[in-house]
Each structure stands twice: as structure tokens, then as C-alpha cells.
Amino acid sequence: MESENTKDVSSAEAVLLGALAPGVNAPTWITLKFTFLLMGLSLALMLGLAFSSSDSPLMLHVTFLVLICLTLFSLLSWFLAQTGLVSVEHQMREMGLSQNDNLDETRKSK
Q: Which of 17, 50, 82, 106 has a CB 3.0–4.6 Å from the CB of 58, allowing a cystine?
């Protein structure tokens, strides 16, 4: 039954579920890594533009933003390495969205 549950959950639903349920599932972590990659690319572009304009306060500001981004990503990676990822099925059971839980509750109520 649980293998059918994973086929029914799309990646977007898994990411939204990962935002609401305890723990981090694999699709949410992949989305976070992709977001940090795009943020790093945009900050690198901004840093290149700041160097080309020779504006030292802007270079300092963007360098500080890059350091914040790198620190946040490394801390998130370390935290997930310590705690591990949670399966989507486990998150669905935690929130009571699993079809198995609904069947068990109807059996208990009878």
C-alpha cells in the first residue's frame, strides 16, 4: 500500500508536505539545493558586476551576502547529515494524510 502512496504524491506536493511536516524529505532537500545554486549564481553575477564597476561598498556588501549564503548552506547540510532525511510516507503518517491511517481510523470507530 505504501508503494502506491509514493506514486500518488507529486514532487510539488512532497515539497509542500516537507514544508509543513516535521523533518525534511528528499524532494524538499533537492529543491533547497537548487535554490541555493541559483542564489549563488546570481550573487556571483552581482559580485562580478560590482568588481567591474569598481564600487568598493557594493563589493563588500555582495561579498558579505555570499558569505551568508555559504554559511547557511553549510549549516543546513551539516544539520541534515546529523539528523537524516525523512521519507514522504513518514511525513504523511505524521500529519494523518496516509490512506492507511484513514482505513485504521474507520475500523477503530466501528
A: 50
